[in-house]
Fold this protein.
Amino acid sequence: MKTCPLCSKSWPSNHTSCPTDGVTLIDSGELEPGTIIRGKYRIQRLLGRGGMGAVYLAEHILLARPRALKFISGSLTQDPAFLRRFRREALAAIELRHPNVVEVVDLDQAEDGAPYIAMEFVDGPDLRHALTADFPVPRALAITRGIAQGLGAAHAKGIVHRDIKPENILLAAPNTSAETPKLFDFGIAAIQESVTAITRTRGLMLTPPYASPEQWRGVPADQLDGRADLYALGGVLYEMLTGQTPFHAHNTEGWMYHHLNEHPQPPSQLRPELANWQGFDDLVLCLLDKDRELRPKDTAELIGLIDHVRYVPPHSLPNSLDYEFRTDPGQAQADSEPMLFSTRALREDSGRFPRWLWVAGVAVVIAALVGAWLTSNPAQQTAAPAVQTAIPAQPQNTPIQSPLPANPQPQQSLPPGTSSVSTSDSAATEQKAEALFKQKSYYDARPLFIAACNPDQLKACSYLGYLYAQGLGGPKNLQQAREVYQKACDGGPQSSCYSLAALYMDAGNKAQARTYFQKACLAKVADSCDLVNSLQ
């Protein structure tokens, strides 16, 4: 084929000048329709072109079946090391068979020596062209689940894709009940050391909006594992439902900084109706965790988290105060530590309520009877107020408890990000913040807790974790809640470990939940031992 340099139209190779503009045509390097490749494939039309080469729709002559042929560009064919790696990776991809992976069926060289792979032809758009405003949540979850299943098959064979993005996800039978997402370019993306189509940044081969922190840190390809793919898949899911990638930058340094240091906004802050999908924010933020140890350990765990997401009509959603501030009924009233409880997952995972809930329930009944008596006897209303124990009106399905240490032990250091306020100032700041919290002045309390959260005021960190987890005084941010609770848990008071465990339980990560419930159990935090046993 030849191309006009003025109008960009393509013309058959027997033309010498453009019939429209009269200028001399140049060789485009494209294969003409009808070209026979190795006596097996008849070229029909060009499907697309990228930095690595071109993809054509072809017909397998003997089988009369459509195939997609991907030819590697001429510059790469001059690199013997690339060709050896390309062959090795393509042969591995041929062994990969899964409904959610575009099947590689052949590997060969054209008559001019250009290597190509023959693949299953998917008659549908890539995800990039399917994205729309208000992308349906069920469809996004189904696509993510399908790609996770395909990745699971690849990871089981030791194949890591390393370039998950909307352009590499094809949709068969789009917008129908039979829609099937298929992951594209296995055996191509893995040859990063030689690929020129993916952005080269500081010697790294990656696609900036989706690349994992470990890729940005330059972890060698043979040390990357499937969790890098899960991070990128989290970015794709984020984009499907918010219309934007988790981070935005104008240069390489900006992308690197965001992926290594910044936390994305919860998707529900960009698209408020996502708040009706319980577990969705947790799912996405878990996938996008900077620490790969805190992401789902594999695709099976990810699929469990996806299946955990549920739509709850707005009138059925618990408000942010369903998890009330109260004391630990398992301790003596005089020395009890202030704690935050919920009953989420206790029924689901243990089949019974813990002892403190029964005790507190009796307290509520007694308080109600006393209140009724006081109402009918106004003269008694000047008596000293009784201690109140609040119970959620409607217990939920999984635990979030937020133990607050009464007497934190000073530690030498905490992870980066803690306050540098002096001990005396932080104590005064924490006391002021706590008073505001009890007055429900959360917007005033939150910045004070942030300032006070340091090794000498881990109690402030526990309060701050609660505010982050419940979205009080500012945006809800479960990632920051986990980090703050982690600081408090590592710093000494094991009651904060219960809250950290509860957040992992909500995210469906029962292994991590059990680890931190165990730490709380050793510190005799109420009901933590029961929860450890229920997670056996």
Residues 276 and 312 are 5 Å apart (CA to CA).
